[in-house]
Amino acid sequence: MISPGDSGSDRMHGPRGTDITCQEALDRLFEFLDGELEPEWMERVRGHIAICRHCWPRFDVERVFLDHIAARGLAPTRSRRLERRVREILRNAAE
Ligand SMILES: [Zn+2]
After folding, report:
1. In this structure, what DSSP letter does residue 20 have?
2. How many angstroms separate the Cα of 48 from the Cα of each of 12, 51, 55, 58?
């Protein structure tokens, strides 16, 4: 039996307008920041961030970011550039 009106629970995705979940966005966050994603995913993550303002504070991005830098042993200049981008995106996402 198919009920055309019953379409509320078949998509476990994020808010309307984005086709990836918060988790998928987070999984790719630093590849996104590093510009290492395929163009298709760059757009998806960017689109998600623009629309979903909830995932940033929830995922404690700054802490994840610092862990990321520590794990990768990025040079300070590189880290600063990355940090600036994070803050920029956070600011844009919050407005
Ligand atoms: Zn999200």
Report:
1. S
2. 14, 5, 9, 14
The contacts of residue 13 (CB under 8 Å, 6+ apart) are 19, 20, 21
Q: Give the count of domains, the chain.
A: 1
> What pLDDT is attached to residue 38?
93
User: Does 61 fall in a domain?
Assistant: yes
The Å distance, Cα 94 to ligand 1 centre, comes to 12
Determine the distance separating the centroid of ligand 1 and the alpha carbon of 77, expressed in angstroms: 29
Neighbours of ion ligand 1 (CB under 5 A): 22, 52, 55
For the chain, the average pLDDT equals 71
Residue-range definition of the domain harbouring residue 89: 51-95
The pLDDT, as a whole number, for residue 26 is 81
